[in-house]
Amino acid sequence: MNQSSPRTITNSFAGQWHPNLWPPFTQITSSKPPKRVLSGNGAMLIRDDGTSIIDAISSWWVTLHGHGDRYIAEAIYHQALELEQVIFADFTHPQAEQLAHRLSKATGLERLFFSDNGSTAVEVAIKLALQWWHNQGEERQHIIAFDGAYHGDTFGAMSVGERNLFNKPFEKLLFPVSRVPWPSTWWNDPNIDEREKQAIKELEFLLEVPTAAVILEPLVQGAGGMAMVRPEFLEKVEKIVHQSKTLLIADEVMVGFGRTGSLFASQRAKLSPDLMCLSKGLTGGFLPMGITMASQKIFDAFLDSNPEKTFWHGHSFTANPLGCAAANASLDLLEKNPNSYLNFESRHLTHLKQLAIHPKVKKVRLAGTIAAFELDTNEKDGYLNTTGKAMKTYALDHNVFIRPLGNVIYLLPPLCITDKQLKHCYKTLHDGLDEINSSRAML
Ligand SMILES: Cc1ncc(COP(=O)(O)O)c(C=O)c1O
Fold first, then answer.
1. pTM
2. What is the pLDDT of the chain when averaged over all its residues?
3. How far is the CA of 190 from the centre of ligand 1 (A)?
4. How far is the CA of 151 from the centre of ligand 1 (A)?
5. Cβ of 222 less than 6 Å from ligand 1
6. Which of 114, 243, 324, 439, CA to CA, is 20 to 30 A from 349?
7. What is the pLDDT of residue 10?
8. 180 DSSP β-pair partners
9. For position 426, which CATH number holds?
10. Which domain holds residue 389?
11. What φ, ψ does residue 112 adopt, rounded to 5°?
């Protein structure tokens, strides 16, 4: 691969807000200007001032194997020389076919529909579920989701997500969805049986109304605060959902591709969803791509001479060959080294146990590569709790990038993170807790 790149680097906006950029999820008036990154290597991001930071949250949970992974980079490079893009109606290509075959085998869902990101993967799943009923002459529009859910920022995805500060301006335009409590749990949680029982009771009650679909994030709600449920709860959910002949949508956008210790979280939770949403780690985090997997049963209801039964949905970049090449390369890496995700939990465990005894730490939880806990503060728990910010600043000063969700602190590193780097992340969190502890001003 030719190493020379035609890149020109200017430093004029280092340490300032760029006058033409509009950053995501950022209130500029109360945030610090972004740090400038020039390159990435494994778990590290290398800044324009020469310092390196450990990317302890895999750049919004996408970077699966590590930054700059050569195997994936070269797969994209070679594919770009062959075919960079082709319209995916009227045409197909080998990378898409290979990926479809592999993901069908891995998920047990026979059909694969491409889109561009996690939100569109969810939009497609919702539309497929609604039209599946419509195509069979039954108008079911009732959808059930869970409290605290986050499924993306497009309108359908916002509708099934929790109503909160992020979607308040659009609230009246979001379609109504019924909600069930999400019985998240943590180490030494004394009341979990009771909370799960209550959630199941409420789900059973809601399912008495004919329902098109139930959507959930298997095992871990991500943006909702790394809120983890027990696999046995999800097994019960699946049983009653399928008993009521309702479709089950597993949103594996965050938890897919080894993040919770099995290739898909649905496998660890023993779920057989009818539809599954994938993105983020799908391409190893190299390129944006979304996929909605569907069972053959779903697909069959769209086969008809009546054009109204067709799924009239598609995106310009459907099955982009570069994205497919990256995804196939990423699957190669997971297949070659399954221990990278199967054994990750044990890598967290010793460190997390030590952290768990800190007086400022509560509600510790762990699933595969995702370790989380909450800061015990005087403020109300939740996204607007400001104490996580002090931890974020402290960690960055010690070259670790975290992005707390309110007072929820979590690590979700790339699989390639070294033991030394992981140890440094935990030491930084521990020291940060001490620092915050001794400084009332920070709380
Ligand atoms: C569970 C889940 N679903 C959907 C999305 C939306 O994905 P995207 O940001 O790629 O649109 C996210 C993003 O964080 C997510 O965590």
1. 0.96
2. 95
3. 31
4. 5
5. yes
6. 439
7. 62
8. 146
9. 3.90.1150.10
10. 35-68+343-442
11. -130, 125
